[in-house]
């Protein structure tokens, strides 16, 4: 018991930090989702009213639709692109080039994330943007557009932000998976006459299923809760045509001081992310068996 | 003969190399254009969008640096303290969880790892109220306390699994030599765990350096802003002064570029090994 006392003392700081800055806000969010709360003195119980309000909230409905489409697009893009890049890099005969390509594709991570958004805001700039200037350069001047200013194009424009950049973490995870496939497997496949595509579908994809699943889950979790892209590029506009739930949560709390409603949106997002993760794990486990 | 063989190998690589090259060009092209534009005056930029042009306007860099340097210094201080605190706390906690048995160990550890499933967006608003009521708004502690506690969740888990993977014989040898627990930790465990500590430091650096939302709600004082938030401010202050704006963008990429240059291998292998276990 004397020894245990020292162990508890060693854990005191981290446990205290987590209780105060993680557990307390998490439970506060659950609790306050049942209250009207301005973050200060105004605080009274309304039961499930916020959740009912969400059902009829048009902004929220648009936000959900946007998020689902955006997630679908980004998950495909941020899994397929890194997979193919990694597949090609692993397949290079030249070890030196293989090494350099890894470094080249990890390199963009030195640029602060927000700079990428700011640079893409410049790319879509209607007056002097790279995209419009490029269109003019190749004689497609009539297609220039206020990409972020038009409700019809804004979500597409946002979905393509940073294209075709390889998300570092997902890229490295899939690369790591492909690198662990033993050389012998590929050699015996080659002896059996399997070409690139057969090898891809019968060996490489099945053998990296775990990494692919992890990359997909990570993309989904990141994209559901991160809204800095939307905040920096459009702030949900024009109107609320590029709204997503996390941004609506942010605006409810910090623009309209509706901390209760913001907490309720947070709870719904939390449950959705939990469900997505569980489903994804189930599906991938089922596919392996 | 040998040459022809080498040529055939190279040819086999060629289609892959070309696709990768195309990928690389499209990815890097905007960044290159930003660097080119950072040396231009506005007149040069509007006159000639694509190509570099003489004279180079190095003045863009001095005027951007005059504003950006403070944000960079702030970020180095904030991220640096966060990394040191997380490395220290997570090593101790990971070690305790990995090497000892004590009452309520499982409950305590679950208290750490279940937080992995709690998204930051759920806790954002109540956490702001908490930090505001603690009087931490517009102080570095608002950022450091929350970054440390947020980072501890994954870091403690990583450190624990690393310490668990070390063979018991190493520790036995140290005990036989008469080392006390504290000495075993400092002189045996921590040096051995250096790769994992580096991974933890790297992931903490990237996530704190890039965090925009939390500083946005807790820091309103310009002189205290970290780089990510400062850049947002900077970009709206210099909205149409493209040369200065992009010079500032280039300057603010330099700190991580230096880290990358020094720790390139660690960047790649560390991030892969750390994430695979997660």
- Radius of gyration of chain B equals 24 Å
The CATH superfamily of the domain at 68-240 and 258-277 in chain B is MetI-like
Which CATH architecture of chain A is right? Orthogonal Bundle
Major sheet of chain B: size, sense and barrel closure? none
Mean of all residue-level pLDDT scores of chain A: 89
Strand order of the largest sheet of chain A: 1-2
CATH topology of the domain at 68-240 and 258-277 in chain B: MetI-like fold
Helix content of chain A: over 70%
Q: Per DSSP, what share of the residues of chain A sits in E-state strands of 2 or more residues?
A: under 5%
- Give the helix tally of chain A: 14
**CATH homologous superfamily designation of chain A:** MetI-like
Describe this structure in words.
The complex is a heterodimer of chains A (289) and B (278). Chain A is mainly alpha-helical and 289 residues long. Chain A contains 14 helices and two strands, in the order αββααααααααααααα. Chain A has helices at 2-32, 49-56, 58-91, 95-106, 113-123, 130-137, 154-159, 168-179, 183-191, 196-207, 209-225, 228-233, 245-254, 259-288; strands at residues 35-37, 43-45. In chain A, a hairpin with a 5-residue loop joins β1 and β2. In chain A, α11 (209-225) runs antiparallel to α14. Chain B has 278 residues and is mainly alpha-helical. In chain B, 80% of the residues lie in helices and 0% in strands. Chain B has 13 helices and no strands. In chain B, α7 packs antiparallel against α8 (181-192), α9 (194-210) packs across α13 (264-277) and α11 (227-237) runs antiparallel to α12 (242-262). At the A-B interface, α1, α3, α4, α5 and α6 of A face α1, α3, α4, α5 and α6 of B.
């Amino acid at each position: 018991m004397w020894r245990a006392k020292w162990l508890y003392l060693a854990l005191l700081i981290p446990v205290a930090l987590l209780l105060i800055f993680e557990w307390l806000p998490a439970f506060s969010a659950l609790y306050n989702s049942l209250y009207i709360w301005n973050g200060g003195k105004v605080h009274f119980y309304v039961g499930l009213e916020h959740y009912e309000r969400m059902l009829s909230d048009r902004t929220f409905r648009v936000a959900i639709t946007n998020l689902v489409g955006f997630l679908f697009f980004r998950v495909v893009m941020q899994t397929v692109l890194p997979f193919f890049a990694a597949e090609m890099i692993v397949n290079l005969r030249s070890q030196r080039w293989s090494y350099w390509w890894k470094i080249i594709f990890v390199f963009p991570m030195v640029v602060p994330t927000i700079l990428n958004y700011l640079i893409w805001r410049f790319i879509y700039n209607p007056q002097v943007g790279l995209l419009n200037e490029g269109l003019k350069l190749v004689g497609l001047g009539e297609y220039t557009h206020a990409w972020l200013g038009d409700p019809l194009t804004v979500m597409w424009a946002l979905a393509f932000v940073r294209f075709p950049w390889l998300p570092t973490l997902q890229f490295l995870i899939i690369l790591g998976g492909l690198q662990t496939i033993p050389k012998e497997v590929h050699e015996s496949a080659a002896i059996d006459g399997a070409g690139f595509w057969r090898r891809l579908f019968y060996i490489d994809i099945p053998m990296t299923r775990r990494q692919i699943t992890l990359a997909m889950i990570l993309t989904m979790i990141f994209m559901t809760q991160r809204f800095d892209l939307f905040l920096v590029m459009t702030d949900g506009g024009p109107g609320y045509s590029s709204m997503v739930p996390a941004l609506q949560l942010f605006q409810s709390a910090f623009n309209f001081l509706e901390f209760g409603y913001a907490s309720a949106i947070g709870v719904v997002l939390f449950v959705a992310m939990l469900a997505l993760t569980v489903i994804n794990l189930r599906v991938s486990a089922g596919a392996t068996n | 003969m040998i040459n022809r063989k080498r040529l055939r190998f190279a040819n086999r690589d060629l289609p892959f190399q070309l696709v990768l090259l195309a990928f690389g060009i499209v990815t890097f092209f905007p960044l290159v254009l930003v660097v080119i534009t950072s040396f231009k005056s506005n007149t040069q930029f509007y006159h000639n969008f694509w190509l570099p042009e003489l004279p180079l306007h190095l003045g863009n860099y001095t005027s951007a640096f005059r504003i950006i340097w403070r944000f960079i210094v702030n970020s180095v201080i904030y991220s640096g303290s966060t990394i040191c605190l997380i490395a220290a706390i997570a090593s101790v906690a990971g070690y305790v969880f990995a090497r000892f048995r004590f009452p309520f160990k499982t409950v305590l550890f679950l208290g750490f790892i279940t937080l992995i499933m709690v998204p930051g967006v759920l806790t954002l608003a109540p956490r702001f109220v908490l930090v505001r009521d603690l009087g931490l708004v517009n102080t570095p502690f608002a950022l450091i306390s929350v970054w440390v506690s947020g980072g501890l969740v994954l870091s403690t888990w990583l450190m624990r699994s690393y310490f668990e993977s070390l063979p018991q014989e190493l520790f036995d040898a140290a005990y036989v030599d008469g080392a006390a627990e504290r000495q075993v930790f400092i002189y045996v465990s921590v040096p051995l765990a250096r790769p994992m500590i580096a991974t933890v430091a790297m992931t903490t650096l990237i996530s704190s350096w890039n965090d925009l939302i939390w500083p946005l709600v807790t820091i309103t004082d310009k002189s205290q802003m970290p780089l990510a938030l400062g850049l947002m401010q900077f970009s709206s202050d210099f909205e149409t002064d493209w040369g200065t704006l992009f010079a500032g963008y280039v300057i603010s990429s330099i700190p991580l570029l230096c880290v990358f240059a020094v720790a390139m291998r660690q960047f790649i292998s560390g991030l892969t090994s750390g994430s695979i276990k997660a």
